């Protein structure tokens, strides 16, 4: 199996205002998109891939001028891979509010001529889905063969099945949840506080000061990264190994795990936008489709029409298997066709991005079934 190869992003501009759940509107916005494979004549083989917190439209392949910039789900998407681009036309879209090309806080607010900064409105999973539906309209795709995502991307896929039940035949939800637990909301808030209290944040308008709230971003990423790994995985990779072999009797880096987290934090602060981090974690917090139905997830999913595939990972304590089983149970109560896999993997939440032959084979088998429907 080979990579999809060189890919080129495309910008889609939308001039019609997009009404948001908050009551605000986004005017004259752009969505950055990548596509892989070939759309068939009746446009029935399109698969939308929704991204998680720090990912983007760059799902697979690499750029001609950046050969090391490989798509975040390149092990999943490509010729002969689980989501086979020889059979499917795959679309990756960067969400509004992100920092990878789609309109976000660092872009110019047409009302002021200055970067949006803190004035960029809070967006929700449902807002993103509505924007994606407009993109599908422009591309002439009335119904997706599947909408797929992991983690926050899985929330978007689930929202698609609720909001646009006639516009997808299959919904693929990986390592996700119907809503965040109190613990998850708490982790997100601590991470946001690290950014909000950084002196270089300047109330979200740090662009005008030519600074980056780097310390806040570093700490936010370190907090997040701890939750993406399992205790077993962290113990196996790092244990209590000392960086120099001896205690330093100070407050610098003693342990290898400290070195790793600081490296991840430093790297993250070089490429991610602080306002984007605030927006996306708040979108995570707000997602709760059952809220409008008195907390009854079964009622929230009652109008869905898609067939479903869900997968979870045994050591994922952030979006645990129990949360995927909640979705499965609600779908079964609605007599939906649903396949569920709970994979014994040591890697925690990050497992949905990693090489795991059992996991990739299960997804491949599911897409092979979808491909037969197209034949």
Tell me what the structure shows.
This protein has 10 helices and 14 strands. The protein has 375 residues and is an alpha/beta fold. The chain folds into 2 domains: 10-179 and 292-374, Rossmann fold; 184-282, Rna Polymerase Sigma Factor, Chain: A (Orthogonal Bundle), CATH 1.10.1740. It has an 8-stranded mixed β-sheet with strand order 1-4-8-5-11-12-13-14, sandwiched between helices. Strand 9 and strand 10 (114-115) form a beta hairpin.
Task: Fill in the keyword field for this structure.
2 domains; single chain; alpha/beta; 375 residues; eight-stranded mixed β-sheet; 10 helices; two-stranded antiparallel sheet; Rna Polymerase Sigma Factor, Chain: A; Rossmann fold
CATH topology of the largest domain: Rossmann fold
What's the helix-strand series? EEEEEEEEEEHEHEHHHHHHEHEH
Looking at the overall shape, the CATH architecture of the largest domain is 3-Layer(aba) Sandwich
In this structure, how is the largest beta sheet organized?
8 strands, mixed
Under CATH, the homologous superfamily of the largest domain reads Alpha/Beta hydrolase fold, catalytic domain
Query: First CA to last CA: what distance?
Result: 22 Å
The count of helical stretches stands at 10
Strand order of the largest sheet: 1-4-8-5-11-12-13-14
- Please identify the structural class as seen in this structure: alpha/beta
Count of all domains: 2
Number of strands: 14
**Radius of gyration from CA coordinates:** 21 Å
CATH class of the largest domain: Alpha Beta
Keywords: Acyltransferase, Amino-acid biosynthesis, Cytoplasm, Methionine biosynthesis, Transferase
Family: Belongs to the AB hydrolase superfamily. MetX family.
GO cellular component, one term: cytoplasm
Domain AB hydrolase-1: 45-355
